[in-house]
Design a protein that fits this description.
The structure is a single chain. This protein has a domain of about 70 residues. It is about 65% helix and about 0% strand. It is built from four helices and no strands. Helix 3 packs antiparallel against helix 4. It is elongated and about 50 Å long. The N and C termini lie far apart (about 45 Å).
Length: about 110
């Protein structure tokens, strides 16, 4: 069996490329962001970065978010952490979209 080199494998489209596609994830939100000023977009990026920091803090110490975390069933604990990680990824995707919209405006 032949191994596939990284250069041969198809690349995944970026969150920005997906958002630009009608019907793609975050497309409506992307269109709304295009109407904002660079300053408003930058403020949005900062807000998402703060949210990421909060979520990373909750993962590092769940008690800062949920005082009785360790009293939960292990499946619930796991679901919370998975959800926080998904939130972080969604926030990172949004940051990438906002940065790309800023680049569009500056071009």
């Amino acid at each position: 069996m032949r191994s596939v080199k990284a250069a041969e494998s198809p690349t995944m489209p970026s969150p920005y490329e997906i958002a630009r596609t009608p019907g793609g994830k975050h497309h409506g939100w992307y269109l709304q962001q295009k109407l904002l000023s660079v300053e408003e977009l930058s403020n949005g990026i900062e807000s998402f970065e703060r949210q990421i920091a909060k979520h990373e803090g909750w993962i590092a110490d769940p008690l800062t978010k949920t005082a009785d975390f360790y009293g939960f069933d292990p499946r619930r604990q796991s679901a919370l952490v998975v959800g926080w990680r998904q939130d972080i990824q969604r926030h990172r995707d949004c940051i990438e979209i906002l940065r790309s919209v800023i680049m569009e405006k500056k071009a």
